[in-house]
Amino acid sequence: MAGRVGFHSDLTTDIESPADEDGVHDSFSQLIEEQCHDHHDVMEMTSLELEEESRDDVMHLESPVYLRCDSEPQQTECLIEERWSSDTLKVLSSMPSRTIGRSRGAIISQYYNRTLQLRRRRQSRPSIQHFPRAARPSIRGHLVETDADELEEDDNKRERLVNNLQNLSGSDRVRMLRVMPLSLAEKKELRMLVLNKAEHSLSQSQIPCCSQLKYYIIIALRHGWYGWLSFLSSLQLWQTALKCVGGRFGTGVLSYFLFLRTLLFFNVFLFLVTGLFLVVPQAVVHPDRDQNTSVASLWGLEVLTGAGYFSDSLLYYGYYSHQTLQTKRRCSESINGTSCESGLSYNMPLVYFFTIGAAFFITCIILVYTMSKSFGQSFRIDKSKGLLAIKVFSSWDYKVSKKSSVRLQRANIGTQIKELVAEVNREELKFSVLQRLFRVFIHMVAWLMCLGSTLACVLAVFYFSEHMHKLQKDAETRSRAGTNPSGGVLLREASLLAVPVLVSGINLILPGFFNAVAWMEEYDSPSVLNYVSIGRNLLLKVSVLGVLCHHWLGRVASEPEKLGLQCWESFVGQELYRFLLMDFIFMLLDTFFGEFLWRLFSQKALKRKRKPVFDIARNVLELIYGQTLAWLGVLFSPLLPVVQIIKLLFLFYMKKVSLMMNCQASGKPWRASQMTTIFITLLCFPSFLGASVCVTYTMWTMKPSAGCGPFRGLKTMFQAGKLWVQELAAENPNLSWLASAHAYLVENPLFLFMCAVIFLIVIYFHSQVVDGQRKIIELLQEQIENEGGDKKFLITRLQDIHERKRVVSPRRIRGASEDSSCT
């Protein structure tokens, strides 16, 4: 029976059952009634009938495993009997789940008719992708004698089907074979018959030269297309490395590296936008420098602080011109005189404003789309048992032939099977009331400790940044009075790193404290542990970033004169550069001391073979923290995404090498089915939304510096677009509608609020659709289980009736034989 069943994965083909399934279902009740009637009115059985019954004993046809039921031992014993009655076999062969009432010959006949119709309509070449796919073939013919005429008829139908398949084109032939409800062995046999017959016919008749050339061109184009697709797949960034990580450490660690690659693509997009529209035009046409803002640095700290040489470069906001950039005029002498052509003009303030706005808007669309798509993929109904069966029986790619690729695929499949098995075998621990109260108390104490430490660190950052702000104002006052001591420049530049070092140190130390507290809580599930760690680290990062934004926009931007700043935007850009660089340096230190040295100490000193486990929560929140700094700094430093790209590239290879050398897989395998969705959600709402609010607040309300940048002389950065619209309306009265459109769509915050609401509504509706689909799938699965129970009940009843009939019949025959002998 197994050889007759074909599994089809083409979900686009509609399943159609031409037989009347209701009649098949009704056959159960009719057959039960007939058996009950025969049980009450039993006729005498001859020896031939008994012999026929003995032939019905199918010794090697075991009952299916899914028919067993622990709750019904009597029915289970009937189902696992070694002998099946002929009536039971007939019912089994008529079940809708196994047949549509057609034999193998009927299937071949049906597809012979289809191929014949396809040949007749060959000129129009209809698509056969939408042909209905039949159900699985019947087991009716199993161990049932068939007539020679039927076998001959089946062979004739098979021969005609082979002839029709031969006359089809290659693509139509493949599609037709694919949708046939036959086993792979029978499909392969049909294909070999078609090919052998085609070769025999080709040997008898010579193919014209033009046809041969056409076939060679088609084959060459097909090979070229497949080679191009293979080349494109090989161009995927870090594909082999990601397979190695996933095969050795599982989907949880793999989700971290996939998230890192996603952030890299976001930063590449930001760099392309700002580089093409801001950096390249400004680099081509240098601004007129009306002040000397270059600062000489003698201590080499400009690489760490971003000051000195970098303060007057394309890296920061203050370098960009506030005028309309124009190329040089071209003058040519002619008979009529000298004529000059005006060069190209480029309104830098307007382009700066709209480039930043467009970059954030497109990033928002990409994030919302990615998040909604990820929701649909991760929150679908995928039962672990079903996924485990799919992974075991149909996950191997037989096209893989390279040894290294085979090893990677084997390791990857093995790790995924371990995760699925662990999820299937996972059992919820049952605790008593006192144990539950104790666990709740431990969780409350742990959360109080984490919240208290987070609050203490946030207050430390707040007061320390305020203290450093006062020191900078005092140093500026002393420098103006001429009482600045020797070495003050060095101390002043070094003091700029104090707040970044403190914040990076907190981000390094406090997650370790969170892990210690989580170890005290003793979480059973590794996934729950990761989610709790992500929540605590997220609370820490969001709180620290909120304090820093208040420091930059509330202290530095409100009183730049007291700090001696001619361009507070460039200073904020330098601050973000320092925080981004310090974060990378401390991640290097954490990788070296927390993973490499700890592994050496554990193996050499403690004599333990265990290695540390990769901390997914802390590393992911570090990525989100760095990306938030990059988004905050795009306005003040257009080239800050380049720094983030370099950081992510180094970070990927550093983490990969450290992971392979210093870490081990988790002792409890677990499947991270929703990790990527959670990462994208955290990147969208706390990170991108917070950065967008800060940038929008700066452009709408903060006053730009009067001596630098493209928005000098304006009350807000937002006025650049308004002045441009007014100039267009003054030059061309037909464009006066732009002023009102700008006022209602850009100046009015209601429009931005409506856009945000629309995005949220789209996400909400998409999640509701996914949730509705999940409920429908759950109902369908429950219906399938109920129908399976019904079938099991009916088969048990049939087998029970037959067994009782088998017991009564020999007694009647034995009595009848005794009576005949007496007479």
TrEMBL record:
Transcription found in the keyword field: no
State its location(s).
Answer: Membrane
- State if S-adenosyl-L-methionine is listed as a keyword: no
| UniProt name for this protein | Transmembrane channel-like protein
Give one Pfam family, short name only. TMC
Q: Give the membrane topology.
A: Multi-pass membrane protein
The family note in this entry says: Belongs to the TMC family.
Q: Name the coiled-coil region(s).
A: none
Q: Which molecular-function annotations from GO does this UniProt entry contain?
A: mechanosensitive monoatomic ion channel activity
